[in-house]
Amino acid sequence: MSRFGTVGVALRNVQRADAGTVERLGVHGVATIHEAQGRTGLLKPYMRPIYPGAALCGTAVTVLAQPGDNWMLHVAAEMIRPGDVVVVALTTDNDDGMFGDLLATSYHARGCRGLVIDAGVRDVRTLAEMKFPVWSRAINARGTVKATLGSVNVPVVCAGVPVEPGDVIVADDDGVVVVPRERAADVAAAAEAREKKEEATRARLATGELGLDIYGMRDTLAKAGLKYVE
After folding, report:
1. What are the CA-CA distances from residue 124 to residues 86, 90, 133, 221, 226 (Å)?
2. pTM exceeds 0.90 for this model
3. Which pLDDT tens digit goes with each residue over 133-168?
4. pLDDT confidence tier of residue 214, bands split at 50, 70 and 90
């Protein structure tokens, strides 16, 4: 065991979040889910989609990889079940191009919904044409080796956020958020309630009503010392 997690382990069977709950979460955006679970679980903002409009929601297959080495990404392919998202963390910062169109073809064939990787990817034009969604810290043509063991389906920390195998991963143009498996149903309910409330607020804003009045800000602004000057 290292401070990065267990090395040299590939866990075949993990408990995943309920499929129906995953689909409920998938209709909401990252911002809504992040707010609904108390502003937690959001990966660092350098994690960006490789093409505009990309979105995914699925259960995590986690990978702990070594810098410049994508060996464990190939091992992960065997663990993928339909509806999974592969989440790759590294033992140290690295931006080498660890994933490209060949691995994407393999992952897609296994039912993978996309990739979140705290490292680099390449072949992005082909990945975009394939509509295979990827969020990464870099785009980099520099390739990798296959020499040092990591692990698959162990707890990892990806872009600053702990991820357990089977957690729910939601990603869109705003970023990536992790919903712990055991909280998924509660967060889905909170996201639904928040979305319903926002729809009502949006309708009021569309009529010209001000957020200052909808949210009752005027008194607190006055107490804070705001003065209107003609």
Report:
1. 17, 21, 10, 48, 50
2. yes
3. 999 999 999 999 999 999 999 999 999 999 999 999
4. very high
